[in-house]
Design goal:
Shape: elongated
Helix content: 25-40%
CATH superfamily of the largest domain: PPM-type phosphatase domain
Largest sheet: 6 strands, mixed
CATH architecture of the largest domain: 4-Layer Sandwich
Structural class: alpha+beta
CATH topology of the largest domain: Phosphatase 2c, domain 1
Number of strands: 16
Distance between the termini: 139 Å
Number of domains: 2
Strand content: 15-25%
Length: 434
């Protein structure tokens, strides 16, 4: 009797085709389940965990991790290991920097089934419990957004080409979902930050004087314009009694929120010490000590602080490292108020000095921050002190508020299209003519 070879009837080929089709259906099921599972998730952490858990089941691996690549220009290799899921009762494996470097350079799947002897990673130390690794890139429009890595195939032969192909499809399918979730989180974070800045700007505005003081025989006004939504310049009018008022203009180091917080600290300290100190220099000395004790070494502030006596028409002041205010006398001369000392907050125990000047009828005192004189145009030419003096001298009859407006207008006209680089603050005190 003649033996029949099953192959001649195509049984083996049919069996292989059935296995191939079954494998393809299984893969499609895995991909469909993954798409359904991550499609409704909003948290990038949840998306990543779901991708990893499904990947472990898909390729029968022990442990997985997604490393999100943070493509910053100054730190192109900076990475964040966002989450790790393990199906084995062992410590978490750490993604090898050599593997990450290889993935960033090549942006294609990588299988390592014999780590200690792989020629591509000769001399690289491996965790002894890692016997196989499969890495695939997570690309969004050809940009590497992350690396999906699985460790230790639960079979002695290691990861196969089918495993590599399936994991690459999973990564390609889920990369955009992961990136979208991350972008949504960034958007929510940005909106929250913008709201916090808006509230901080409102709080800062509430700290400034709502209206100029009503001081017999004097016209006083001030204004500040931040280069950002919140700034580090500060001015204040502090009524001490019916005849005296403290005048303050400050400029703290830095920009943005940190500068605003330091400005609030400076204002609170100046206000409290104004009521408690017996002299101008004592007030600045105590403010200096407070800032020195409560801030980091690189934080400091320049401050002009003066007490105006409207009965005796005298101004006692201390200039702590601030731009020198200019006293425009009725006879046409302009004097700088220099007496004081260094900036506050960097040298504890500094002995500040004070000086007292007479304020005659028609005298005008202009106190300003460096954002006025150092404002630059597109040719990087500063506004300068001369332009400030010319602006004041050209408008001798303007009110204090009107003169503040003219100074700010002149600064902005000079700057033109150049962006404002620093806060602009001006305070004007005019003694009325008798």
């Amino acid at each position: 009797m003649t033996n029949v070879n099953p192959d001649q009837f195509g049984y083996r080929r049919l069996e292989e085709e059935n296995l191939r089709l079954k494998h393809a259906v299984d893969e499609l099921s895995i991909l469909n389940e993954l798409a359904t599972a991550i499609g409704g998730l909003n948290s990038s952490e949840d998306v990543i965990r779901k991708i990893i858990s499904r990947s472990l089941r898909a390729v029968n691996a022990e442990q997985g991790v997604i490393t999100v690549v943070d493509e910053q220009p100054n730190e192109p290799m900076k990475t964040l290991v966002r989450t790790m899921v393990s199906s084995a009762d062992r410590g978490q494996f750490h993604f090898n920097q050599a593997l990450l470097g290889w993935m960033i350079m090549n942006k294609k799947p990588l299988t390592v089934n014999d780590p200690p002897h792989d020629e591509r990673f000769r001399g690289i130390p491996w965790d002894g419990s890692v016997h196989s690794v499969l890495c695939v890139p997570m690309l969004v429009r050809s940009a590497l957004k992350g690396v999906l890595a699985v460790y230790n195939k639960k079979a002695e032969e290691g990861f196969t080409t089918d495993d590599q192909r399936l994991l690459a499809i999973i990564a390609a399918q889920s990369a955009q979902v992961m990136e979208n979730a991350r972008l949504r989180e960034e958007e929510r974070s940005l909106i929250k930050m913008q709201e916090e800045f808006r509230l901080a700007a409102q709080i800062q505005a509430d700290l400034l004087p709502k209206e100029p003081p009503n001081l017999s025989g004097y016209d006083v006004a001030g204004a500040t314009f931040s280069a950002r939504s919140i700034g580090g310049d500060y001015f204040d009018f502090i009524p001490l009694d019916g005849k005296r008022i403290a005048l303050c203009v400050g400029d703290v180091s830095g920009k943005g929120l940190t500068a605003a917080l330091l400005m609030a600290n400076l204002q609170a300290s100046l206000r409290s010490q104004s009521y408690m100190s017996t002299s101008v220099k004592e007030c600045i000395g105590k403010v200096n000590h407070h800032l020195f004790e409560s801030t980091s070494p690189e934080k400091f502030a320049t401050v002009f602080y003066g007490v105006l006596d409207a009965v005796n028409n005298k101004l006692t002041y201390c200039n702590a490292g601030h731009e020198m205010p200019i006293l425009f006398e009725g006879n046409g001369t302009a004097d700088r108020l220099k007496e004081g000392g260094t900036v506050v907050g960097i040298m504890d125990g500094f002995e500040f000095q004070e000086s007292t000047i007479d304020v005659a009828p028609a005298d005008t005192l202009v106190i300003f921050s460096d954002g006025v004189t150092e404002a630059m145009n597109s040719d990087r030419e500063q506004f300068g002190e001369k332009r400030l003096i010319d602006t004041v001298c050209q408008h001798p009859t303007l009110s204090a508020q009107g003169l503040v407006g003219k100074i700010v207008e002149a600064v902005r006209t000079h700057a033109g299209e150049a962006p404002q680089s620093d806060d602009i603050t001006a305070l004007v005190v005019k003694r009325k003519q008798i």
